[in-house]
């Protein structure tokens, strides 16, 4: 999870994604451990677990915007890092040309479950700056839960330029959105093109020493979406 990010704060930055192999992921992680901070929430293996529940409109606007390659698009999701947690983060992640912006606010378990069950009436009464924005979005567009996505993440950070590099693996998906807080929710393993997904996030520029490490492998930036990959795998 994003170190130093306050709930509800907006984060603007570039975000580039790559498919990489397990061998390449291992090599990059070895380099990054030497020069970057490891995410403080990582376990003994350097990874932490993420579960996201995605919402979309009845006409699947967000899905089609991504598939059709629109430069301005969004994702709306609930995210947790532990099924025993008391808090889920409601996130609105939007892309405007080359920049990505994320707005988030915390929901307790009861409110998160209420939202998944289709009731957003509580949102404008929450004492949070983004509450009315989220309420308008859910109410106006009739957002509904689509699927759950799980994966493991390694994350590395630098204390400048909002630089954050992540390696995601073991992608899994479930259509049973009622089981957001159930660690035993049945999930289907989702095949990935090369095994892992590398994400490089930064505010303005990537330092030369990071570019030098990334140049050790053949990287071609591509438009990757776990949401799209999982929907197409599950045929929904």
Task: Describe the protein in words.
- The protein has an eight-stranded antiparallel beta barrel, surrounded by five helices.
- A hairpin with a 6-residue loop joins strand 7 and strand 8.
- The chain has a single domain, classed as VTC, catalytic tunnel domain (mRNA Triphosphatase Cet1, Chain A).
- The chain is 24% helix and 36% strand.
- The chain has six helices and ten strands, in the order βαββαβββααββββαα.
- The chain is an alpha+beta fold.
- The N terminus is likely disordered.
- The radius of gyration is 17 Å and the shape is globular.
Question: Which characteristics define this entry?
Answer:
236 residues, mRNA Triphosphatase Cet1, Chain A, alpha+beta, single chain
Topology-level CATH name: mRNA Triphosphatase Cet1, Chain A
Distance between the termini: 28 Å
User: What's the total count of β strands?
Assistant: 10
Write out the strand line-up for the largest beta sheet, numbering strands in chain order.
1-6-5-4-3-7-8-10
| Name of the CATH architecture | Alpha-Beta Barrel
Number of helices: 6
What string, H for helix and E for strand, traces the elements in order?
EHEEHEEEHHEEEEHH
Helix content: 10-25%
What average pLDDT do the residues reach? 92
Structural class: alpha+beta
Radius of gyration: 17 Å
Number of domains: 1
Gross geometry = globular
Main sheet properties:
8 strands, antiparallel, barrel
Q: What proportion strand?
A: 35-45%
Detail the poorly predicted runs: 3-8
CATH superfamily: VTC, catalytic tunnel domain
CATH class: Alpha Beta
